[in-house]
């Protein structure tokens, strides 16, 4: 009698399913030399949908047909065809694609994740490489309220990247100190100023209403000088039960953007905020802690999967790492994250990627070569550690942006621009090979 793990209820070609009805997980899976990869993939499909490690009496072929996940691809790397080529091989590696019926979880994101990367996350040598979302799953998500076009319209920024600054020090300062630093960065030309991820909600030394009121007063003062709008992203991260109250507290105090540490609060918390009609300001998502999900090459999930879900859940702005500063993220991963945030995803608006972690004026050309102008340059110490002060650090960044957008040479055009000249003197230019010896 045919092994049930080879059955049609568990195995299809991609052409044998309607992709709109499924969410498809793609995995890297390691297996022992003599393990049957078809059975291994089917076992994953069963474990994560209708069954267990042993047959269940009520798990009928009819139930499996409708609710069991389907293996739609098993690809060995390298692609062995003959037994003799396996001589000396101890472990074999596969890319497996498994399709999960949307009917199992509808638009319930936690349940979808429990299905696609639930119990199997504990298996050795298994990493989720991608999730392809079917139309039926995505259609109930609203995504970002503003997106890239909405942010440009809101702020009147056209033809160039946005400039962001993170208030430094990261935490431990009073609202008065923060507002002083805020003004210096804003008046120098920073578009978007955010709290660091390490200060959020109400702390004993820095309450939401206090920092919002003082920072927005500083923004108003700076805007009158520079003739541009400054966005303040107030970090409301807290226990989930306090998030809505924190958001409304910040909005009522005058903030024009809110921020949330999305891994700590959860993706569904971000979705709750983004889809709430009372929250009418952009949302910045910081993925701090995400490395625990994706840093291992053989476990967890890929970074671009996380970013795709953050976009789906409604973040207008998403913080990620530049590969050129203090983080050693692969360039290809950084580009795949950009793709996840900005490429077509049904009717979901694109999110603005924010690249931080060591960005300086000498990195502007390289970053715009990679990402184009639809991005945010996230500059922390590159503003606050400028030898001439935060205002000069911001001016230097805007000078560099203008020069690169105009297609001119940065070092040639920096002559006579004292803020930019000083930044280049201290931190160098990436194209010259200066990468690891600047402040971060």
Describe the fold and architecture:
It comes from Fusibacter paucivorans. Residues 22-135 form the Ribulose bisphosphate carboxylase large subunit ferrodoxin-like N-terminal domain. Belongs to the RuBisCO large chain family. This is Ribulose 1,5-bisphosphate carboxylase. The protein is α/β, with parallel strands linked by helices and 440 residues long. The chain has two domains: 8-138, Alpha-Beta Plaits (2-Layer Sandwich), CATH 3.30.70; 147-432, Ribulose bisphosphate carboxylase, large subunit, C-terminal domain (TIM Barrel, Alpha-Beta Barrel). The chain is built from 18 helices and 13 strands. The strands form two sheets. An eight-stranded parallel β-barrel has the order 5-6-7-8-9-11-12-13, surrounded by eight helices. A five-stranded mixed sheet has the order 2-3-1-4-10. α6 runs parallel beside α7 and α6 (175-187) packs parallel to α16 (390-405). The protein is globular. The model is unreliable at 435-440 (pLDDT under 50).
